[in-house]
Amino acid sequence: MKTYDAIVIGAGHNGLTAAAYLARAGLDVVVVERNPFIGGASVSRQIYPGFTYSNCSYVSSLMRPEIMRELELPKYGLQIVPYNGGLTMTRDGGYIATYKDHDMNRREIARHSARDAEAYDRYAVAVLRQCRLIKPMLMKTPADPASLKPRDLMGLAELGRDFWKLGEEGMYDALRFWTMSCADFLDEFFENDLVKAHHAGSSIIGTGLGPRSPGSAYVLLHHYMGEVDGNVGAWGFARGGMGAIANALAASFQSHGGEIRTGAEVAQVIVKNGTAIGVALADGEEIRGRIVVSNMDVRRTFLKAMDPKDVPADFLKSVRNFKIRGSSGKLNIALDGLPTFNGVPKDCPALQGDMHVSDTIEHFERAYDDWKNGMWSRRPYVDMMVPTRIDPTMAPPGKHFMSIFVQYVPPTLADGPWTPEKRDAFGKTVIDMLSEYSPDLKDLILHMEVRTPYELEDEVGLTEGNIFMGELTLDQIMFNRPVPGYAQYRAPVHNLYMCSSSTHPGGGVMGAPGANASREILSDWKSLAKRGRS
């Protein structure tokens, strides 16, 4: 039986990133994926003739530029096309838009509040100040504050130095920001409800928090830390759909001799004498590897794919307590043409970006209340886009693809499990609400795919449908992610590693967990090789 140097479980973007770095370093690597296609949540599929759907993730910004350079992803076809701003609509036909142009932004905000237009630059500076503190940490292994190892002590000293550089006022602001709610943060700058609502959306996407929940300000920051073509905070579409990211990663991996096996579901990680030695597939086949790397979330890895006797009991208890609360749904729609929106000019460039209909913080909170009560939101927050305005490759000529991300959708309903009938009723709720803002939307729908947390877990492997594979709250970031003492991508089983979004720095199509994990694996691999030669 062949023994690989490394087995990577899951062909999501972090698994492929880790695999590509390992293969690039000369390791013999195989990626095993349970689905017949690769990509995980970063996937594109043609499930309606002529249309390419970005089924789960739908925009790109967080993918680290250093990963794109080092793995030569543009060489393998990856192109991120930036889009121009976005807008939030009101029920009476009004709207507020954002643009890439700074002066246009100020004039647009001034339409609603001259005071808020003056405050916008202060808001942007405050957010960027936090980004400057956090962004350098994204591609670093978290220092363990309980360790006396030189590299951990140096890492903590470096973090302390960067924190000290903020100055007295900056340090106070940082500590407040990390624990405060998004609503409180926005209140410090803006007075207009629509202006605040437009900026609040990023604080609740993918998380079981409302904009008034402590910690939601950090989630807002998480979505600001990306960049496109060097523009910090910018967002764009992966040309050809989000699957283009996974396809480019796979091509880079395979160019270094990597092997991908689809339709290969892992039933269990094989452990012998406290060491991972391979995986057993659902069909009974066993694959042997010197190391095993899991791109599944931490719960699926240790509670479903491992024998409990192979894992310390205290670690399993911490894993069970790791918060993975699904709160999102998705609609993917094939359109016969472009929908119009009440009060928004057809040539408004902001229509190329993300569009929302939640126009007050109170709207967010009422939607969040429904989720807490075990029902999908009656008037949910939506982040909808028509990427074919910029990328015509995703639909036939004259047709369009619409992506609608929905918040809040509970993984378990108060009246029982999800059924196809409830899924369709959820989809109808969303479309009925949007039709108040776009009266021709229903008539343009050719096909619609509706995905609840049930589909996201059953088809993609996201526990409870949580797109970040774990809440991004202060108790679950950096050296606490996923479990204190195990934030450096190593599991409490020899030769078993973690590389999914359950690890630092968390979710989003970023690639950083996979890249960071590969660095730790290669460091251990070199040590093993030296011992083997001695």
The CATH class of the domain at 3-80 and 239-323 and 464-533 is: Alpha Beta
- In terms of structural class, how would the helical and strand content be classed? alpha/beta
* Tally of individual helices: 17
Distance between the termini: 27 Å
- State the assembly state of the protein chains: single chain
CATH superfamily of the domain at 3-80 and 239-323 and 464-533: FAD/NAD(P)-binding domain
- Strand tally, please? 20
DSSP strand content: 15-25%
Protein topology:
Blueprint: E1 3-9, H1 13-24, E2 29-32, E3 44-48, E4 51-54, H2 65-70, E5 80-82, E6 86-89, E7 95-98, H3 102-110, H4 114-134, H5 150-164, H6 167-179, H7 182-187, H8 193-200, H9 216-222, E8 227-228, E9 231-232, E10 236-238, H10 243-255, E11 259-261, E12 266-272, E13 275-281, E14 286-294, H11 298-304, H12 313-321, E15 328-335, E16 354-356, H13 361-372, E17 381-385, E18 400-407, H14 420-435, H15 441-444, E19 445-451, H16 453-460, E20 496-498, H17 512-533
Parallel strand pairs: 1-2, 1-14, 2-11, 6-16, 14-20
Antiparallel strand pairs: 3-4, 5-10, 6-7, 8-9, 12-13, 13-14, 15-18, 15-19, 17-18
Helix pairs in contact: 1-10, 1-17, 3-4
Question: Could you characterize the architecture of this molecule?
Answer:
This protein is α/β, with parallel strands linked by helices and 534 residues long. The protein is built from 17 helices and 20 strands. The strands form six sheets. Strands 1, 2, 11, 12, 13, 14 and 20 form a seven-stranded mixed beta sheet that branches. β13 (275-281) and β14 (286-294) form a beta hairpin. The longest helix has 22 residues, at 512-533. The protein is globular. The model has no long low-confidence stretch (mean pLDDT 92).
